[in-house]
Amino acid sequence: HLDGLADTADGLGSGKPAEDALRIMKQSDIGPFGVIALVLVLLAQVAALSQAYGHSWARGALAAAVSATVA
């Protein structure tokens, strides 16, 4: 899922026409927009888990298990 997010961010962030954006999305490497998208998503996940652990240990453990399962 994160790979698809990075590919989508690279394609849409390129500012190229549709055919070129699709070609960029199909490449196996990651571009700068993909890196930025992944960093922001992972930081948001860490912040959410930090908030969950701040309320209670059990709530944080449950949130970590759920986020690992759906990721």
Which characteristics define this entry?
71 residues; mainly alpha; 4 helices; elongated
Characterise this structure.
This protein is mostly helical and 71 residues long. The chain has one domain. Helices cover 83% and strands 0% of the residues. It is built from 4 helices and no strands. The protein has helices at residues 2-13, 18-26, 32-55, 57-70. α1 crosses α3 (32-55) and α3 (32-55) packs antiparallel against α4 (57-70). The chain is elongated, with a radius of gyration of 16 Å.
- Briefly note the structural class of the backbone: mainly alpha
Biggest β-sheet strands, sense, barrel: none
The end-to-end distance, rounded to whole angstroms, is 7 Å
**Mean pLDDT, rounded to whole units?**
88
> Quick one: how many beta strands?
0
Q: Strand content of the residues, in percent?
A: under 5%
Low-confidence stretches: none
**Number of helical elements:** 4
Domains (count): 1
Overall morphology: elongated
Report the radius of gyration as a whole number of Å: 16 Å
Q: Give the topology string: H per helix, E per strand.
A: HHHH
Which percent range fits the helix content? over 70%
